[in-house]
Design a protein that fits this description.
Elements (H helix, E strand, L loop, with lengths): L27 E7 L9 H10 E12 L14 H7 L4 H6 L25 H9 L3 E10 L2 E9 L1
Parallel strand pairs: 1-2
Antiparallel strand pairs: 2-4, 3-4
Length: 155
């Protein structure tokens, strides 16, 4: 579902909360929600609002990092426990091994990173979107070694 961005004029920028967009119902044919959903502790109000401002038959495009597929050195936003789980390691094994220097040893267990509320993988993103949209499709996207998920949902 490639989009030719050059075919569209630059939009007027508006700052608003994702749960209360200042647009009329059905205002857009396509809505792009890029790198936002992972920051929301409860994504459902925002997804409902995206559905509201998209015309019937329109589409919503959502992207989010697929941090579970990132190389360990590219996982700065995961907690230590999450990074260890991705690699099937335990904290004790890493601490006892020479590679412990590759994993930050700050007290991330009690102070997880606050930037991302959720770390989506494809199955989780599909489940969340299925509650808000019909026929959501989730595809992996890799750019320069960084992995993302790109979803297209119809309203």
């Amino acid at each position: 579902f490639p989009v030719d961005l050059d075919a569209y004029p630059l939009p007027r920028m508006v700052q608003a909360g994702a749960e209360t967009l200042p647009y009329r119902t059905g205002a857009f044919d396509t809505v792009v929600f890029a790198e936002i959903i992972e920051h929301l502790s409860n994504p459902y109000p925002a997804l409902s609002e995206l559905r509201r401002v998209t015309r019937p038959g329109g589409r919503v495009i959502i992207t989010t990092p697929d941090e579970h597929r990132w190389a360990p050195e590219r996982r700065p936003l995961m907690t230590l426990d999450e990074r260890l789980a991705v690699d099937n390691l335990t904290f004790e094994a890493v601490y006892a091994h020479e590679t412990r220097r590759a994993v930050r040893t700050t007290d991330e267990r009690t102070h997880p990173h606050l930037w991302h509320s959720w770390h989506y993988d494809a199955p989780l993103l599909r489940r969340v979107l299925a509650d808000a949209f019909r026929g959501a499709r989730v595809e992996p996207l890799c750019y320069g070694g960084w992995y993302f998920l790109c979803a297209e949902a119809r309203v």
